[in-house]
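During the no-cost extension, the postdoctoral fellow (Dr. R.K.) reprocessed legacy sequence entries with the updated structure-token encoder. One reprocessed record is reproduced below for audit purposes.
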Amino acid sequence: MRRKNGPLFWVTLGILTVIFVGPLLLILLTSFKSQSESRTVPPTYFPAEPTLRAYDVLFFQDAASPVLLWFANSLGAASMHALLVVTVCSLAGYALARMEFRFKRAIFTGIILTLFVPSFIFLMPNFLILDKIGWLDTIWALVVPGAAGAFGVFFMRQFFLGLPKELEESARLDGASPLRTWWSIVLPNARPALVTLAVLSFLANWNDFIWPIYVLFSPERLTLPAGLSRLQGAYTIDYPVVMAGAMLAAIPVLALYVFVQRYVIEGVASSGVKG
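Re-encoded structure tokens follow.
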């Protein structure tokens, strides 16, 4: 049996580490460079004279003062969106996995088929709907659309199919309703899948760039990715400031990875494709 910790394994692991961690380190180091050094050719990796000028511009100068507000907008919108996705998709997934009703298979097939539709096709219909209900330029325009995504419903359904039915049968014998069973029995046993879906939904909303620009018009309501694009001038780009903003945007992503990686791995491993 081939050893998994042989030289080839560690060489491959080292190459992958450089590929994935290298750009992040380059962003961090560039944020400590002066504007002139960031433009040198050939480029330098380590700053010759480290400076905090980029962070001073980002947080304390008037032109960039909304950065913390953009950060708060992104954090609030992504958190609310993740919570809504977990709620809606777990309810829909449980119904498709355990309940019997007419056209159940056809409905599930229709949901799966939407996975093959490019997401940009929904931009205009969603925009028109939000315009009709008066949600444009509000946080709800970032939170609600996509809350019932096909992937989330499919992911939760597959996880629920893997749970033993005996867990729910005892609750039904005690007279619990399907909603009560979902809340008291199913959700506590689906923590890995719930955390995984919440993380994926949070990251998708946090990193979204096109949709916030499409539906938000006020500078103070922008999210961080959309707001950081305003740090670029019409003719010049202050690369250290842009990289400092990118590091700010990476903080929640790195924090999520550190704290929930175990649940994500378990959730993905437990949500195999079952009929």
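The CA atoms of residues 94 and 182 lie 7 Å apart. Residues 67-98 form the longest helix (32 residues). The remaining legacy entries will be reprocessed before the final report is submitted.
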